[in-house]
Amino acid sequence: MGGNAPRRHAGLWQLAVDTLDGNWEHDHTVPSRTLYPHQWSWDSAFIAIGWAHVRPDRAWRELTSLFRAQWLDGRVPHIVFNPAVSGGAYFPGPEFWASATVDGTPPVATSGLVQPPVHALAAWHAYRIAPSADGLAALRRLYPRLVAQQHYLATRRDVGGAGLASIVHPWESGLDNSPAWDAPLAAVPTEAAVMRAYRRRDIVHAAAAHRPTDLDYARFVAIVTAYRAAGYRDDGLAGRHPFLVECPLFNAAMGAAEHALAGIAGEIGADPGPHRESAARITAAVVDRLYDPTTGTFHPRDLRTGQLTPARTVLGLAPLILPDLPTRQVEAVLVEAASARFGLAARMTRPLPSHDRTAADFEPLRYWRGPSWMNINWLVRQGLLAHGHTRLAAGLRASMIELVGAGCHEYFHPDTGAGLGSPTFGWTAALLLDVLAD
């Protein structure tokens, strides 16, 4: 058994290691062998954290392979396609995205979207888990690419002009099917022909009742089609793109990345000052643009309407990962987290849900509309630790460990803790190793 895992959790530790080993694919880890057979961006970031505890070399190979697919403009695509996998194994596949037709793309096929920029946070966390000369060399190689990723988001994606990045698709949020996107999605026009033009692969491997509806999936495809038709360009998004939202989690991750980059810069002999300044600006913008004093939590802002979206989801807790989040907002978010909506406590009786469990549209089985996810729990726990709330962090840790007693599932029932989705999921295994070792 590696790391500092307690011996009483030896079985869970080995389960997690075996899951990662089983999902390893020559230079990266697939999220799952069935539903997600390629490399996913923020999955690889979380997975690198787990590898750092048992195979640090794989942690750096994981991140290095992902950033080899970075576009010239700095974006890190949310899917990197494995050419050895059949094109029909996943939809939308490489033919749909057609990245090879776009200037400034890598030789490997990718998507044209991004995901939350948790990569600098993961790289810094992985290095502190297993500091070494090889790790330091990897940080030096990754640093300019991480900086380019941040620059892309801070410039080309600042559609609102207030210092926050806009997501152009719900898939970019990572919380693909969250109720947070219902209002912006409702305005996306969808022709019936779009729904007949493709075959969904996700409901071959997972129950349809657990996945996005056909109508929502058609809207997802319509948004990508619009972005692809414009060559994935970000200039002029405000005037033509059907979905533009400033997301609390995405932008909190961008701010946390600047704090991590400051740490990396200090370690490799670069100047951490600009990263600290950027972090402060992002935190101020997140509070100014996305905090609602009436609800006491954070909400996405729909740039099409200028309004905050009304759903109270776990996205509202994500800004806790900003270490410089003002005390007023920290305290308000903790009240939200401890309420009946989410149930965070030093002794948790149910898992942390992804959506307000008191809401009429709470769905305990459907993807991101209620179920509990290991990566979101991990981020919230990091935020609790950053602000000194160790008892709540311990309660969440215990809940996370209890969840995986059902196996390293993709996500979990928010009341019973039963495993849902893929039964051998990469980031669940990786982040279990991290909390066991802590």
From TrEMBL:
One GO molecular-function entry: Glc3Man9GlcNAc2 oligosaccharide glucosidase activity
Pfam family, one: MGH1-like_GH
GO-annotated biological processes: oligosaccharide metabolic process; protein N-linked glycosylation
Occurrences of domain Mannosylglycerate hydrolase MGH1-like glycoside hydrolase (ranges): 36-428
Keyword annotations from UniProtKB, A to Z: Glycosidase, Hydrolase
Record flagged with keyword Hydrolase: yes
Record bears the keyword Metal-binding: no
PANTHER family, alphabetized: MANNOSYL-OLIGOSACCHARIDE GLUCOSIDASE
Family that this chain belongs to: Belongs to the glycosyl hydrolase 63 family.
Name of the protein described by the UniProt record: Mannosylglycerate hydrolase MGH1-like glycoside hydrolase domain-containing protein
Organism: Micromonospora craterilacus
Lineage: Bacteria, Bacillati, Actinomycetota, Actinomycetes, Micromonosporales
